[in-house]
Design a protein that fits this description.
This protein is 33% helix and 16% strand. By secondary structure, it is an alpha/beta fold. It has one domain. Helix 1 (2-29) crosses helix 2. It is globular and about 45 Å long.
Length: 264
């Protein structure tokens, strides 16, 4: 039985690696993949020496004066756009890497007036007629590394926040500030398990975020912390920094700063 399980695991791993290789080849040489690589090249170091905010989707956003971010460079994640009408402005960039979010929300995201980043391997969820302001990136689930060149494979680290950090590094931002990265969830269960929301969402800034009937994957906070440690190390090696201005957040990887003090 043990031998059969080992062979089964090997075959599944081989299948996954072959799939990554196939997508990698298509990304490198197809017209659409080449277009994304050119757009990424333009963005490389385009914000050198500047600061940006990565906005998580935690409930703490309701205690955060986000109006102060109007004139800042910002990365929004997944369904942050539900806040855009209230804010009166969109984030500078929007990053979505989870296939369930894309499957259920791609049309809403494609209607946004902001530059979007999607995983190349999930492009089947994207309407080819709506690719304006869309950049495809390559993501991988197996390599536990912080990639400094966003034109290469990026490890998600079980959180879209980590992809945003790698993009911010690639763009040259000197200081990255986290807000709304609460790093805690009321809903418990096996990490990465797909569940269907039974009602209002208690884990994000809006009860409609993953509202009733929405399919989503349970978080893997342990793996996320591994990714965050690698991100901190990469930034510090380059004389840059990531700080955490989340109000009441549970994440302890990054130095804490007072949100309002950032604007004095």
């Amino acid at each position: 039985m043990s031998k059969l399980l080992d062979e089964w695991t090997y075959l599944h791993t081989l299948r996954d690696r072959l799939s990554v290789l196939k997508h990698n080849i298509l990304y490198r040489y197809s017209p659409l993949g080449l277009s994304s690589q050119r757009q990424l090249t333009v963005l490389r170091d385009s914000h050198r020496g500047e600061r940006c905010f990565i906005i998580g989707n935690g409930p703490s956003l309701r205690q955060t004066d986000l109006s102060k971010l109007r004139d800042e460079y910002t990365f929004g994640l997944n369904r942050i756009y539900l806040l855009f009408p209230e804010l009166g402005f969109p984030t500078t960039y929007l990053v979505t890497v989870n296939w369930l979010v894309l499957e259920q929300c791609a049309d809403e995201i494609l209607a946004l007036p902001t530059t979007r980043f999607f995983p190349w391997r999930f492009r089947r969820y994207i309407d080819p007629a709506k690719l304006s302001n869309t950049i495809f990136i390559q993501t991988d689930q197996s390599k536990h590394v912080f990639t400094r060149d966003a034109r290469k494979l990026l490890w998600a680290g079980a959180t879209v926040t980590n992809i945003a950090m790698q993009l911010a590094f690639f763009m040259g931002f000197k200081k990255v500030i986290l807000v709304g990265v609460d790093h805690s969830f009321t809903t418990q269960g096996t990490p990465h398990q797909t569940v269907v929301s039974p009602g209002d969402d208690p884990n994000h800034f809006s009860p409609k975020y993953f509202g009733k009937g929405f399919r989503w994957q349970l978080p893997d906070l342990e793996t996320s912390e591994i990714a965050y440690q690698l991100a901190r190390q990469a930034f510090e090696e380059e004389g840059r920094e990531i700080v955490d201005a989340t109000i009441g957040g549970k994440l302890t990887v990054f130095p804490k700063v007072d949100y309002l003090e950032l604007f004095k």
